[in-house]
Each structure stands twice: as C-alpha cells, then as structure tokens.
Amino acid sequence: MARLLVTGFAPFLGHAVNPTAWLAERLDGAVVEGAEIVGVRLPVTFTGAVPALKEAVAAHQPDAVIMFGLAYDTDLIRPERLALNLDDATAPDNDGTVRRNRPIDEAGPMGYWSSLPLDAIIDDLEAGGFPVKTSRDAGGYICNHLFFGMRHWRPDLPAGFIHVPPFPDGVKPDDKGHRTGMEPERLEQAARIILARVAKVL
What we know:
Layout: E1 3-9, H1 19-27, E2 31-32, E3 35-42, H2 49-60, E4 64-70, E5 78-84, E6 111-113, H3 118-127, E7 135-137, H4 142-153, E8 159-164, H5 184-201
Parallel strand pairs: 1-3, 1-4, 4-8, 5-7
Antiparallel strand pairs: 2-3, 5-6, 5-8
C-alpha cells in the first residue's frame, strides 16, 4: 500500500487555530484511493520545521509528501508551483526570529518546482466545486522554507505545498463582511481530492 505524508503547522502569528494542524490530525490513519495517510504537525520555526519533516519522512517512509499551510488572506485553495531559495518575511516565526532577504542554502539553486500533479489537482478541485487558483511561489515565510527544504533534501520524493484558507471562526471581525473562510468539513473534502489525485499517479 502506498503511503502519503500530510503535514500541517502549529498556530502562529495570533491565529489561535491553524486549520492545517487540524487537517493533519484528522487525516492521520485514513485511507484515500488505496493509500495510507500519515498526518504530522510541524513547528512554525525556521530552525525546526525542516528537521521535524525529515524525522517524519525517515519514520514513515512515504511515497509522496503533501505539505499544507494557512494563507489567511485568501478564501481559495492555492497549490504552489515554486519553492524559492529565499527567506524573506517581516513577520517573526514562533521563536521570534525574522529573516529578511537571505538564501536558504547559499550553494543551492534558485528554486524547485512542485513535483505534485498540480494541474490535475486543480481540475479535480474545480470539478468538485472548490475555489482554487494556482500560485506562483510559496512566499518567504516558513511555508516556503519548508517547501524548499523538502525538495532540496529529497528531490526524488514527490512533494509539494498547498495553501488553504482559515476556518470561518478564524476570520477576523474586520474581515467578516467580505471573507468566508472554509468550513472544516469542506477543507477535509478538498484535501481528500488532492490526496486521491496524488495517490493515482504514484
């Protein structure tokens, strides 16, 4: 049986709940399209996220890695095409560290493409009625740092990053008039569609 590793993140930057941590816990132990799902929660730190991911990969030996992260500013599911070799964020991580305009690996390439079947994933999500739009790159915070670290460490292992919206109760009061977020059940449905597509191409 194939095995898929799903990662989510701990709460961060004042967001009391990170839907991706919930998602990883919810999917842990599930079977999707014949593939066993292992879910793990990672720390939102520049120094801790990649080592924790490496430990999970070593422990579970997955056939693919699907990393999820919260993008508060969108109600869309956003599959990320590119991991950049760049830490560049004004917000601190959960250790209080801020990294601006510095390469993740000075000897590494400029970036890595996602090795998940993103176009097929987008088609499947659209067919399922989910709001989805591809994104060029995963930004300059821990999400991108993790994505780059994974692809740089194990370019042979299919892996990619997908940003998701907050839960409705995680939308700030000032944003409630024009934001909806995504219900937990809907987020799980979308994740299962993503995982099913990945499992089909292994």
